Amino acid sequence: MEDETTGLIKCTVISCPHYFHKDLPRAQDDHVFFPFPEDEDVCGTWKEKCGIAADHEVEDSKICSDHFKPTDYTDDTRLVLKPDAVPRENLGWMVGMPEVKLTKAPKFELIKEAVDTNERLVQRFQELIKELNPLTKKVNLYKKKIENSYKEIYRLKKLIAKYPVKKNGKIETNLIFKVFSQAQINMLLGKRKVVWSYDDMAMAFTLRHIGNRECYLYLKDTLNVPLPSLSAVQRWVASNKP
Questions:
Q1: Checking DSSP bridges between strand 62-64 and strand 33-35, what pairing results, if any?
Q2: Cβ count near 117 (within 10 Å)
Q3: Pairing of strands 8-10, 170-171
Q4: Rounded distance, CA 200 to CA 11, Å?
Q5: Contact yes or no for 93/117 (Cβ under 8 A)
Q6: Which pTM value belongs to this model?
Q7: Selection from 28, 34, 31 nearest residue 46 by Cα
Q8: For 39-67, what is each residue's pLDDT tens digit?
Q9: Number of Cβ within a 10 Å radius of residue 115
Q10: Does residue 12 contact residue 50 with C-beta atoms inside 8 Å?
Q11: 24 in a domain, yes or no?
Q12: Residues 86 and 158 in one domain
């Protein structure tokens, strides 16, 4: 079918995405397009393979080189087809539909099988749509949680920026005590052993459940907020269960 605005004509194979210009021998991606053969028997076979009716006019129709095997050409240039070459590759039947040859008298059993298969595919598609809806809602919920986490991170950054971190090359712990606990300060100082208080663990547990695991790890590992490891939080929760 020709696009009147661009002059492009689509490959006759329904599932094929390639187009050619009526005034050019090849497509821009170097696909070669072949006209339907003059031999009536071979032309009829081409129509069957393309899924079009036997009485369909194909005077201006063409099929691209994607649908022929290397043995269908007369030489390695792949510019000329053998007289008995038939399109057999990438015809679109692999999506689950049985191939139905659209002759003047199609077999009822083949048509019924195609219709039944199509109904099953439609039913499966509808099932996938139903599964997609709750997943979409879940994704949107996580997006909101991440957005809230970013806002909290921004607030904390502004708060931290108000306090000088270093003075004369030393960390002024008397100022950052207003923001961080002793354990967090020890962690910022690079001490290897940090003892977390009950309040530290309670705050970490709250942060973990305001957002999700990924948000917590982002705060801890990417933004370097001094927080206990998730395994330490889990052990703390287990030891404080009533």
A1: antiparallel
A2: 14
A3: unpaired
A4: 67
A5: no
A6: 0.37
A7: 34
A8: 998 998 888 888 777 888 888 888 988 88
A9: 12
A10: yes
A11: yes
A12: no
In a domain, 159, yes or no: yes
Express each pLDDT in 91-150 by its tens digit. Answer: 865 344 445 454 455 556 666 666 667 778 788 888 888 888 888 888 989 998 898 888
Is 86 within 8 Å of 42 (Cβ atoms)?
yes
Please give the DSSP secondary-structure letter assigned to residue 5: T
Distance between CA 91 and CA 78 in Å, rounded?
Answer: 19
- pLDDT for res 113: 67
What local confidence, expressed as pLDDT, does residue 215 receive? 86
End-to-end CA distance of the chain: 74
DSSP state of 2: B
Q: Is 230 helix (H, G, I), strand (E, B) or coil?
A: helix
pLDDT interval class at 71 (50, 70, 90): very high
Domain of 157? 139-239
Does residue 113 fall inside a structural domain?
A: no
- The two structure tokens encoding residue 19: 């187009």
Q: How far apart are CA 17 and CA 138, in angstroms?
A: 35
Answer whether residue 108 is part of any domain.
no
d(CA 86, CA 47): 10
Q: How many domains does the chain have?
A: 2
Q: pLDDT tens digits for 149-196?
A: 888 888 887 877 766 555 555 555 556 777 788 888 888 888 888 889
Q: Are residues 99 and 1 in the same domain?
A: yes
